[in-house]
Design goal:
Layout (H helix, E strand, L loop, with lengths): L3 E6 L10 H11 L3 E3 L2 E2 L4 H4 L6 E2 L5 H10 L2 E2 L2 E6 L3 H18 L3 E5 L9 H19 L5 E4 L9 H8 L7 E6 H6 L4 H8 L3 E6 L4 H7 L19 H8 L6 E5 L4 H15 L1
Parallel strand pairs: 1-2, 1-11, 2-5, 3-4, 6-7, 7-8, 8-9, 9-10, 10-11
Length: 275
Amino acid sequence: MANIHVGVNMEFVRHDDKSFEWGVEKAAELGFDYVEPMVHLGRELLSEAGYFHSVSMLDDPLRIARACEKAGIKLSGLSAHCPLCKPEVSVEYLKQAIRFAAECGAPVVNTDEGVKPAWTTEEEDHVLMRYVLGEAAAVAEPRGIFIGLEMHQQYSTTVAGLDRIYGLVDSPAIGINFDTGNSYLGGEDPVAWLKHVRDRLVHLHAKDISVAQSDAERGQVTGTPVGCACGEGVIDWPRVIEVCRTCPRDIVFSVECGTVDQAARSVKYLKGLLG
């Protein structure tokens, strides 16, 4: 039986205008056991000034490791979303994120196919994604890092669509980062889909969807950045937990919500279910 741990994506502090280190300390204070930092290439003003949680991959990867060690919290993975259909962006971004993850101690790098070019066909996009994932997997395999594919854009928000992307490259480094909220908003049954991918699951975005958002957007969108507090929306968490208990590896539920208060309610709810 797989163990389930509760973590949080650093998006929960996005609106607090605080630094990465502040967010890590806050996650530990709330009772989370893991964090999922977001990384970016280059430099940008808000993160440099300490007003945003993202970490530049030009920084020392040990910055992340030291912050987590100081707070007594672990890394579930890195949020490294990039447009797989655009190799001029994604090849070097993902390769750098994988090297960064290996050095800071994050076992998974999460991504999705991203926004597609305006001029390419669906078939061309899948060739481009195959190239990107092949290059990334060649870097991830020897380092023991998983690439977690998430349902979040035009091709991946159906069971068949995500399966097709997953099957583009035959590599043990490629797995599934299942997003409970995105799968629901795309119109699928999250629990049935989760059962379908449980043997490939390497990470889970624990995202709940409010009834109001469900009524307004289900079947109309390909994802959402954050959800409501876990347990306050439409996702059947006891069944999600039941499925994840049967996975071949331990799984971290990385909560994706929009505020510190929602994160606090989420960790209390999920840990209550997990006992």
